[in-house]
Please model this.
Amino acid sequence: MKNKFPNDFFWGTATASYQIEGATDKDGKSKSIWDTFTHTPGKVKNNENGDTAVDHYHRYEEDIELMANINLNSYRFSLAWTRIIPEGIGKINPKGVDFYSRLIDKCLEKNIEPFITLYHWDLPQSLQDKGGWANRDITNIFSDYSEAIVKNFGDRCNHFITFNEPQVFTIHGYVDGYMAPGYKDLEKYFASIHNVNVAHGKAFQAMKSLNNNIKIGCTLNMAPCIPATKSSEDLHATKLFDTYWNRSFADPMYLGRYPELLIDDVSKHIQQDDMKNIFQKNDFIGLNHYQHIRIKADNKSLLKARGAFNDELPFGLDGKDAKLTLMGWEIVPDAYYDQIMDLKNNYGNPNIYLTENGAAYPDLIEKNGEINDTDRIDYFKKYLSAVKKSIDDGAKVKSYFAWTFMDNFEWALGFEKRFGIVHVDFKTLKRTPKKSYYFFKKLVEQNSIPFDF
Ligand code: GCO
Model:
């Protein structure tokens, strides 16, 4: 039928270890840079942290049951490196492996395909102490870690994502200091870009040599960049920011070269065979997308360009219907379509896994206990329509993972922003499905967007 998604489409939700697991010092887990960052006063809103998060470590069975009850056929989650190899290098921690084994087995028991992210920002602190992503040694260390993952889970899992949003953790971790490890250092930033690219390429080869059947790609957060004003400064800033945000990983990994505006900054880090190693036959590209970004020139920012705040836009947002989510992000479904088509047209028509998309809203609980998150449902209808259109226009989209399954720890913003289709009471940790959870049930059941929901 015309409105149907492909038969073998993966419907799921995405999460990240530090945002949901809690149990940060249990069963041999070591400290990650996010444990350090959140325990440094002033870094996170209200000085909140993920020590307990939403206790997925102990409640994963209940959580997977909730996914199974609406027939989701896949689940994207990340592994905490600090549970599996606590020192970052060397000895494997059997209890950490056991946790993820049980989680994977629970998924499989419920016919849920696990999609594993190897790195969603929680670097072992011991590796940060050696320079983190700015130290080239990490390229081999990450590759060793990736081998341990495939040795332990490659028999049961088919899809592996090396990195989640490398530009986010390098820009916010090394340029503006907004996220862990909190540096403001351009030299470290440029070194990190190249090291992450090389780490991806080495890990890809190491993992494939252990198991050639698994599918591997990287997840990038991509967003069309548009100038905040028509000034030549903002136009130039937009080109710069587009390079840093959208192309610094996509181009080397998926086209085999650095974008022109970046080449001078990274060239001193490039060693023999690096470009060949980075450019692998990736099985897919993972796309996280939330919004388009309006860019402003800013001489005070290290990159000379940054996202504009909405109140800085001289003419306001386009049109009187412009709407924002609780993050202040503009709702522009056309930008999602454009982004997917950009990958199709400019990156060799790859398999595309949509690995994150979603919206934060206040989600008030009504007297009868219901959470009628109709704004979020409306957002999903619009964004899913953009996805469907891109498929009709030839993009090879294979999955849609909503961000996120349940409310959780939103990094430097603490617990303030709720993105889940399941509500979590952060005191009691009780899970309550929102209306959007039932929207997803119907979506999966009919394999098409339930516009009448
Ligand atoms: C990211 C991460 C998620 C976030 C989500 C909402 O995209 O930043 O992958 O961990 O929580 O995107 O900001």
In short: The pocket of D-gluconic acid is lined by residues 16, 19, 164-165, 168, 221, 288, 356, 403, 410, 419 (CB under 6 Å). The first helix runs from residue 17 to 20. The mean pLDDT is 97.
